[in-house]
Specification:
By secondary structure, the protein is α+β, with helices and mostly antiparallel strands. Helices cover 29% and strands 25% of the residues. It folds into four domains: 33-61 and 455-592, 2-Layer Sandwich (Aldehyde Oxidoreductase, domain 4), CATH 3.30.365; 70-145, Aldehyde oxidase/xanthine dehydrogenase, a/b hammerhead (Aldehyde Oxidoreductase, domain 3), CATH 3.90.1170.50; 206-282, Aldehyde oxidase/xanthine dehydrogenase, molybdopterin binding domain (Aldehyde Oxidoreductase, domain 4); 294-454 and 599-753, 2-Layer Sandwich (Aldehyde Oxidoreductase, domain 4), CATH 3.30.365. It has a seven-stranded mixed beta sheet, sandwiched between helices. The chain has a six-stranded mixed beta sheet with strand order 7-15-14-13-8-29. Strand 10 (216-221), helix 7 and strand 11 form a beta-alpha-beta unit. The protein binds dioxothiomolybdenum(VI) ion (MOS).
Length: 754
């Protein structure tokens, strides 16, 4: 598909040489804009979900809905102390509760956070299981804890892990020489940004049903990765993976909290084996907040230097990330990758606390990192006296400096800037932050975004053609809500010249061909090309049959609207149905995503433009409008892609304004483990959201040219809101959530500084 051949000659090794890259840059830009686009009938257009009716009518089956003859309900007893030693545990009274079939101890020794599992029961109904939990006698020796970052970092604080200090360096990186960069700078600024711990809170809490059939285990799970759950279960139970089957039909979100096997799923399998009955464990909303992950907090200090004209000369990041009992997120990716800065240095520490382990949360690290970096850039722009958008354009990079300096295969961020600025009316912004008057001040802000955009090679799919004309598209992927089935139906239908409704999609079963887990925005760029590959093979097979029939070449056969045509003589045609009838038996075609050329960086890009209103008396922020522009290569389904953007922006608005897990210093327990005290955005808080896609295709990444979109719309939104608030009131919010109290504090600080 590429027009220019010269790029092909540039070998990987050369790409490390910056001199060579300079020559490439100009050419590179041309190549990506000149690429010949394949003409698609369905791909890129809006298609309604093939399973939409099933979902909205309540017929779609979620793990919560499952019920089997004789099924037991499992429940888990959790430690109420943030740090404690289990001295003794007695299950005998619990076993005597009527209806209880099994009770097991899950842990001995030291418990490191409030909410960790201690014991479990299985009973014939929920009430009996609940009662049994109350009858388990545990004797704890309560130990001192550190549940906040501040406490954990204090001298002499209780040590979270016996074998390591509470603060540990876990990431370091540099390119260029920051000291030199700071010497070259005309302006140097240093600012500290803080992001709170967020809870994933998917609409559907975690749930698993386990059933044994002899030596074989079948698990229905609300999961983003059926294969990772299968392999995790096999390891935990010490049985072969070949004896575990995991099924997932529908789920109500995951956002990273359902990527791998959960403790409760293993517990369900153990209880099922013990009782010989199917066992279902559903986590409560509180358990969801306690023990299945969260987005780690960050405390990021950025020091940056720039020339008077806005050229960045140095960026330095120091971060303290807190992921509870495990390390937090690296937040440096945006700073290392998105802008052209020749001198970058990063040092990140993790702070351990006696709180539940973090887990990847929609764009882990990049959400926190972008809040700090893109907020910092607006403060730097104001200091220099340059338009914040100009500052970003000034430091536009055509290569990924952190990814060994490779040029981006495609990068439409410049187009995002152009389209976004136009749609929001960028010229309306306050030229100087806070120059507006009155009680309610308006402001505009923006932020950019980068994300890993490519898929995982080895992801497989299969197309089955049946003589009755029906078509199956099969892959061991899963839909975490983004519309995987529709994406597969659209690509298969496009390739086979039929309609999406003609495709029966089968996913969510480990008996199907392997596919990567649904996280990391990987599904479309991994499963999409595999389905395309399988469908094109099926199409070629059918074309070959037609060609033989008519005595022409395969390439002379076209397939469109359920008919095969002789391109040279369109009058000669045969319907899809009539042709496949001649197959007599089913035919299967295997497809795979085999990867992309090395030597290029493959990333998704975007920019959000936001308009806010700030009431300077109450401190309340209203996000009025969000223009979310993304460049993700070829969009597969415009409708679900827009939904993905609306969802990501909504979640980001929520995190920017409301979301914060609060832990009580004294007891070490969560203060807000529910959805009334942990506020998430409601329809009243959601602004007008305008999703826009840059019309582009990545010619190298795969046979469909699509990059990942799941995470990108979640990344820049909080920074864009903070920047808009800055533009409105003239003082920058450096901490999310930006609550009314914090806005009032900022305004007070501004008064004092005057
Ligand atoms: Mo995502 S955090 O990989 O579900």
């Amino acid at each position: 598909m590429r027009k220019k051949a010269s790029l092909k000659d540039i070998k990987d090794s050369n790409l490390f040489l910056l001199e060579k890259l300079k020559e490439v840059e100009a050419e590179e830009k041309e190549v990506v804009t000149q690429v010949e686009r394949e003409k698609f009938n369905l791909i890129g257009k809006p298609t309604s979900r093939v399973d939409g009716r099933e979902i909205v009518t309540g017929r779609a089956s979620y793990t919560h809905d499952l019920s089997f003859e004789g099924m037991l309900i499992g429940k888990i007893l959790r430690c109420p102390h943030a740090c404690a030693q289990i001295l003794s545990l007695d299950l005998s009274r619990a076993m005597r509760v009527p209806g209880v079939k099994a009770a097991i101890q899950l842990q001995k020794g030291r418990i490191k956070y409030a909410g960790d599992q201690v014991a479990a029961v299985a009973a014939c109904d929920e009430k009996s299981a609940e009662r049994a939990l109350g009858e388990i006698k545990v004797e704890y020796k309560i130990l001192p804890h550190a549940v906040t970052v501040e406490r954990a970092m204090e001298e002499g604080a209780p040590q979270v892990h016996e074998d390591k200090p509470n603060v540990e360096k876990f990431f370091e990186y540099s390119h260029g020489d920051v000291e030199k960069g700071f010497k070259e700078a005309d302006v140097i600024l240093e600012r500290t940004y803080k992001t709170a711990v967020e809870i994933h809170h998917p609409l559907e809490t975690h749930a698993s049903v386990a059933r044994w059939e002899g030596e074989n285990l079948i698990v229905w799970d609300s999961t983003q990765g059926i294969f990772s759950v299968r392999d995790g279960l096999a390891r935990a139970l010490n049985i072969p993976a070949s004896r575990v089957k995991v099924i997932k039909k529908y789920m109500g979100g995951g956002f990273g909290s359902k990527l791998s096997v959960n403790d409760h799923t293993i517990v369900a399998a153990k209880l099922a084996r013990l009782t010989g009955k199917p066992v279902k464990i559903m986590l409560s909303r509180k358990e969801n907040a306690l023990c299945v992950g969260n987005r780690p907090s960050s405390l990021q200090t950025i020091k940056g230097g720039a020339k008077r004209d806005g050229t960045l000369t140095a960026l330095y990041l120091k971060n303290y990330a807190c992921g509870g009992i495990i390390p937090g997120d690296e937040c440096a990716d945006p700073l290392r990758e998105i802008y052209k800065c020749p001198n970058v240095k990063v040092v990140e520490y993790t702070v351990y606390t006696n709180t539940g382990a973090s887990r990847p949360t929609r764009a882990p690290g990049l959400v926190q990192g972008t809040f700090a970096l893109d907020g910092f850039l607006d403060e730097l722009a104001a200091e220099i006296g340059i338009d914040p958008l100009e500052l970003r354009k000034k430091n536009y990079s055509l290569r990924n400096l952190a990814d060994t300096g490779k040029p981006y295969s495609t990068k439409g961020l410049d187009k995002c800037y152009e389209l976004g600025a136009k749609a929001i009316g960028w010229e309306k912004r306050n030229k100087k932050p806070g120059e507006g008057k009155g009680r309610v001040r308006r402001g505009l802000g923006m932020a950019s975004q980068i994300w890993w955009g490519a898929g995982v090679p080895g992801t497989k799919a299969m197309i089955k053609l049946h003589p009755d004309g029906s078509i199956e598209a099969i892959s061991g992927t899963q839909d975490l809500g983004g519309g995987t089935r529709t994406m597969m139906a659209v690509i298969a239908a496009e390739s086979l010249g039929v309609s999406p409704e003609d495709i029966t999609v089968k996913i969510g079963d480990t008996d199907y061909p392997w596919a990567v887990l649904s996280g990391g925005s990987l599904t479309v760029p991994s499963v999409g090309p595999a389905i395309r590959d399988a469908s094109l093979k099926a199409a070629d097979f059918l074309k070959e049959k037609v060609a033989n029939k008519w005595g022409i070449k395969r390439d002379e056969v076209a397939i469109e609207e359920k008919r095969f045509y002789n391109q040279k003589n369109p009058a000669e045609s045969i319907s899809f149905k009539d042709l496949v009838r001649e197959l007599h038996r089913e035919e299967a075609f295997h497809g795979e995503y085999t990867g992309r050329p090395a030597g290029f960086a493959y990333n998704s890009f975007g920019a959000h433009f936001v308009e806010v209103e700030v009431d300077v008396e109450t401190g309340k922020i209203r996000v009025l409008k969000v223009v979310a522009v993304h460049e993700v290569g070829q969009v597969v389904n415009k409708k679900t892609a827009e939904s993905q953007v609306i969802g990501g922006v909504t979640q980001g608005v929520s995190a920017a304004l409301f979301e914060e897990r609060i832990v009580d210093e004294e007891t070490g327990n969560l203060v807000n483990p529910n959805l009334s005290d942990y506020k998430i955005a409601t329809s009243f808080d959601i602004p007008e959201i305008i999703p826009i896609f840059v019309d582009m295709v990545d010619p190298r990444i795969s046979n469909i040219g699509a990059k990942g979109l799941g995470e990108p719309p979640r990344i820049p939104i909080a920074a864009a809101i903070a920047n808009a608030v800055y533009n409105a009131i003239g003082v920058h919010p450096r901490e999310i959530p930006i609550t009314p109290e914090r806005v009032l504090e900022l305004l007070k600080r501004k008064e004092l500084e005057r």
